[in-house]
């Protein structure tokens, strides 16, 4: 199994363009074995990492395990989010880190952002669960004074307690590891784009944290309410990020800076376009927006034969038509709760239609 994994990784690296960070290949690392999942040798089996990334792998094998889990979660969630679109987050043509990510398109922007956020999400949650020795609960937010008397509080008052997700640690470690390659090439437009979108993913995740509370009291009363901060479910975050993907901004490079291309407009001077706002930390309008350098490729050029298209066949099949299959499946029905602790269901037959591209 290990030899096969090494051969796959070597093939992927050989096919990957040099402009793309090879940390993506960690998604193919073998973490199934208990003897290797927490071992410093884990990243030695992944070619193409920078010396700094290899050092971090060696020094933090347990953290890297959850970093890899976050990367895989991001890629799987991306596939689910785009399953009904022409591009379905296919990153294996011919391998992770190759087409379409070698094109600086809005699709690449989304993948980089969701991958950076996925890493942070996984690390932050692992911290709050006590799975990583180097971190614990997130910082206690500033809010209601925990020392105020119960009698003076309204029913909506609460105290900060419990264990918040440590998104600060997740973002910090993720930034240090994930951004390593692009920080070394920060004068190149593509690396500037990647770093910006990585930051957007992490920032949106931190801003999306919600308050979760629990009541304490006799017979379900809420004499005391304690609250803590949690991240949203990752699929919910991915849906929000998809909205940013749809509104991603086209940028261009000028003198090692990225500029947003404004909406074309013709004034008295006859100019049809202009460039505004550099994308640096002071550009507040762009801090939470995805950016891209290149137009998306024609995804209809990819063979979509036999791809399941659901109710979006006109878009996914690119005008090539589709076929419909019908099959009878068994599914539970007429379920009833049986005291004390059992649910009994009957089995019903259901006709299911599925559509596939020609």
Automatic annotation (TrEMBL):
Query: Where on the tree of life does the source sit, at the highest rank?
Result: Eukaryota
Compartments (UniProt record): Secreted, Extracellular space, Extracellular matrix
Q: Which GO terms describe its molecular function?
A: cytokine activity; frizzled binding; receptor tyrosine kinase binding
Keyword vocabulary terms for this entry? Developmental protein, Disulfide bond, Extracellular matrix, Lipoprotein, Secreted, Signal, Wnt signaling pathway
Among Pfam families, the record links this protein to: wnt
- Membrane spanning segments where? none
Entry-linked InterPro entries: Wnt, Wnt_C, Wnt_CS
The record's Gene Ontology biological-process terms are: asymmetric protein localization involved in cell fate determination; canonical Wnt signaling pathway; cell fate commitment; embryonic digestive tract morphogenesis; endodermal cell fate specification; establishment of mitotic spindle orientation; interneuron migration; left/right axis specification
Q: Which residues form the signal peptide?
A: 1-22
What's the main place this protein lives?
secreted
Cellular component GO terms held in the UniProt record: extracellular space
Identify the Gene3D superfamilies for this entry: 3.30.2460.20
In the record, the note on similarity to other proteins reads: Belongs to the Wnt family.
**Which protein, by its recorded name, is this?**
Protein CBR-MOM-2
> What organism is the protein native to?
Caenorhabditis briggsae
Q: What gene name does this entry carry?
A: mom-2
């Amino acid at each position: 199994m290990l030899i096969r994994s090494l051969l796959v990784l070597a093939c992927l690296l050989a096919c990957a363009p040099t402009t793309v960070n090879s940390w993506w290949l960690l998604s193919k690392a073998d973490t199934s074995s208990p003897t290797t999942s927490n071992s410093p040798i884990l990243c030695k089996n992944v070619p193409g990492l920078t010396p700094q990334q290899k050092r971090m792998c060696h020094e933090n094998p347990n953290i890297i395990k959850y970093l890899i889990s976050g990367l895989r979660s991001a890629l799987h969630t991306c596939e689910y989010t785009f399953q009904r679109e022409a591009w379905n987050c296919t990153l294996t043509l011919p391998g992770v880190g190759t087409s379409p990510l070698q094109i600086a398109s809005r699709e690449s922007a989304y993948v980089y952002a969701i991958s950076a956020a996925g890493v942070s999400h996984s690390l932050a949650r692992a911290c709050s669960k006590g799975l990583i020795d180097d971190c614990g609960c997130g910082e206690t937010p500033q809010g209601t004074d925990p020392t105020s008397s119960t009698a003076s509080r309204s029913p909506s008052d609460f105290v900060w307690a419990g264990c918040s997700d440590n998104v600060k640690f997740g973002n910090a470690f993720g930034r240090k590891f994930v951004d390593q390659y692009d920080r070394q090439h920060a004068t190149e437009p593509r690396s500037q784009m990647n770093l910006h979108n990585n930051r957007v993913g992490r920032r949106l995740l931190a801003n999306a944290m919600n308050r979760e509370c629990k009541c304490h009291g006799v017979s379900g009363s809420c004499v005391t309410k304690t609250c803590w901060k949690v991240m949203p479910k990752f699929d919910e975050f991915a849906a929000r990020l998809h909205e940013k993907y749809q509104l991603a901004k086209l940028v261009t490079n000028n003198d090692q800076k990225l500029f947003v291309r404004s909406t074309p407009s013709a004034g008295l001077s006859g100019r049809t376009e202009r460039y505004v706002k550099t994308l640096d930390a002071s550009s507040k309008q762009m801090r939470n927006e995805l950016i891209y350098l290149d137009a998306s490729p024609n995804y209809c050029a990819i063979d979509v034969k036999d791809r399941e298209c659901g109710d979006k066949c006109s878009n996914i099949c690119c005008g090539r038509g589709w076929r419909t299959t019908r099959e009878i499946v068994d599914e539970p029905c007429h379920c009833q709760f049986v005291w004390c602790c059992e649910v009994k269901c009957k089995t019903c037959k259901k006709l299911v239609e599925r559509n596939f591209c020609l």
